[in-house]
Amino acid sequence: MSPEPKSDDSGRGEKPLPGVANALREVAPYLTLGIQLAAAVILFFLIGWWLDTRQGTAPLFMLIGVLVGFIGGMIKFLKSISELSKKN
Asked: Is 3 exposed, middle or buried (0-12, 13-18, 19+ CB in 10 A)?
């Protein structure tokens, strides 16, 4: 067995560069916006699919669900962007 190389950071790991940390702090609030929009569309699609399986009306409620999810998600997206731009 070969000895493990010694490191001078005593196991704490490397610290990110100051510029990178500042950039991450700036963009962090924006990173979840796309996920929120996609989640709204998928959630309402699944609700529509569930209603269609119960009522036998496929694809009516699925399409309505996608439309409602997209509109609601876009409203939330635009409000969030507006609030974030006011903070900066």
From this structure: exposed
Range of the domain at 56: 33-87
pLDDT digit string (tens) for 39-81?
Answer: 999 999 999 999 999 999 999 999 999 999 999 999 999 999 9
Q: Evaluate if residue 27 carries a pLDDT over 90.
A: no
Distance, CA of 52 to CA of 66 (rounded, Å): 13
Q: Which residues contact 59 (CB under 8 A, 6 or more apart)?
A: 52
The domain tally of the chain equals 1
Rounded CA-CA distance 72/42 in Å is 12
CA-CA distances (angstroms) from residue 40 to 48, 63, 80, 87?
12, 14, 14, 25
Q: What is the pTM of this model?
A: 0.70
